[in-house]
């Protein structure tokens, strides 16, 4: 779904900023968690980024559902036993793949139960920052708050491009290194083939001389 903001000929800063926010806004996702099942969501997030999440699970007559947020190293960033509704927040220390897992546990002998509806709303970076609270603490005016939000959004975009440039440089260096290694390997293979062919010529020459087939 795409949102469009219609503005007048003289577009104000407020209208422009609203367009950026709507383009970058994220919607909550929902899915069904089966009984004694496990479902996980993964997302790559940059370093030093605030991540917030709000979740809600539909009621189930029996059993419990657990929530766990981990990174690729297995560090538990958030865990909640018997999760039903709540919020979590953490700040990333490194660029990594983070995993949010919901797991359903039912006691033995429980009959068939309906799937549990899970609603998850995750935000990170500018989306996760509470600018209303920031305005109260720093006593900022509405325009100053929007400028701060726009500044953070611009910084986030610049950081994304810087990371993409860094990855491109790393991939280019890897490609050039691989090409050099392939070239050296090709030269080595050719030298081995030439050496083997030369040895075969001298070996066959001695063999035929021993058989007195050639002088």
TrEMBL record:
Keyword flag Transcription: no
Q: What is its main location?
A: endoplasmic reticulum
Looking at the UniProt entry, the stretches that span the membrane are: 182-204
- In this chain the GOLD domain maps to 38-189
Tell me the membrane topology, using the record's own terms. Answer: Single-pass type I membrane protein
Keywords, A to Z, come to: Endoplasmic reticulum, Membrane, Signal, Transmembrane, Transmembrane helix
Residues in the signal sequence: 1-28
Q: Spell out the InterPro entries in the cross-references.
A: Emp24-like (IPR015720), GOLD_dom (IPR009038)
Keyword NADP on entry: no
Localization per record: Endoplasmic reticulum membrane; Membrane
**A GO term from the CC aspect:** endoplasmic reticulum membrane
Q: Which PROSITE patterns match?
A: GOLD
Q: Which family does it belong to?
A: Belongs to the EMP24/GP25L family.
**Protein's name according to its UniProt entry:** Transmembrane emp24 domain-containing protein 10
Which organism was this protein described from?
A: Microcaecilia unicolor
């Amino acid at each position: 779904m795409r949102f469009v903001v219609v503005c007048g000929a003289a577009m104000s800063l407020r209208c422009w900023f609203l367009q950026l926010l709507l383009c970058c806004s994220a919607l909550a996702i929902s899915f069904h968690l089966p009984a004694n099942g496990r479902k996980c969501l993964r997302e790559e997030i940059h370093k030093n980024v605030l991540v917030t999440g709000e979740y809600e699970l539909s009621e189930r007559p029996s059993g419990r559902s657990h929530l766990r947020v981990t990174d690729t190293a297995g560090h538990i960033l958030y865990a909640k036993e018997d999760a039903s509704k709540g919020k979590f927040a953490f700040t990333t220390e490194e660029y990594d793949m983070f995993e949010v897992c919901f797991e359903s546990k039912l006691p033995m002998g429980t009959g068939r139960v309906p799937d549990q509806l899970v609603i998850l709303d995750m935000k990170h970076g500018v989306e996760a920052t509470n600018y209303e609270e920031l305005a109260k603490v720093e006593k900022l005016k509405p325009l100053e708050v929007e400028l701060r939000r726009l500044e953070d959004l611009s910084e986030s975009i610049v950081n994304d491009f810087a990371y993409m440039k860094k990855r491109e440089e790393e991939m280019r260096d890897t490609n050039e290194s691989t090409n050099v290694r392939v070239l050296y390997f090709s030269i080595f293979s050719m030298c081995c083939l030439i050496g083997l062919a030369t040895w075969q010529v001298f070996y066959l020459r001695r063999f035929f001389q021993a058989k007195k087939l050639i002088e």
